[in-house]
Amino acid sequence: KINEKELEAIYQFDAAFFDLASQIGDALNNVEASLSDEAALPAAIRNLTTLSRLAVETFERRAEIVTGSGQ
User: Fold this and answer.
1) Is the pLDDT of residue 66 over 80?
2) Helix, strand, coil fractions of the chain, as percent rounded to 5
3) CB of 19 within 8 A of CB of 9?
4) Burial bucket for residue 27 (CB in 10 Å: 0-12, 13-18, 19+)
5) How many CB atoms lie within 10 A of CB 59?
6) With CB atoms counted within 10 Å of each terminal CB, which end of the chain scores lower, N or C?
């Protein structure tokens, strides 16, 4: 069973996912735009990698709330 506090935390993680999805979409567009720029491409890829890791961490923290393993 999930209580109100946990439900609110799950909601916050889900909202963060929507925000991250938008940021990752922008980062992908930036990688595509940087393909012809040797100087900009590594930074664009690093940004995408950072956002991807953040998405995984956010998912893992959300899973801890759902399963109760983070308590």
Assistant:
1) yes
2) 80, 0, 20
3) no
4) buried
5) 14
6) N
Q: Please give the helix or strand (H or E) that residue 9 lies within, else none.
A: helix 4-34
Q: What is the pLDDT of residue 70?
A: 64
User: Could you report the per-residue pLDDT of 10-50, keeping only the tens digit for each?
Assistant: 899 999 999 999 999 999 999 999 999 999 999 999 999 99
- Dist CA 32 CA 12 (whole Å): 30
**Taking the CB of residue 44, how many other CB atoms lie within 10 A of it?**
19
Q: Which one, of 19, 24, 16, lies nearest residue 45 by Cα?
A: 24
CA atoms of 71 and 63, how far apart (whole Å) = 12
Angstrom distance (rounded) from CA 55 to CA 2: 23
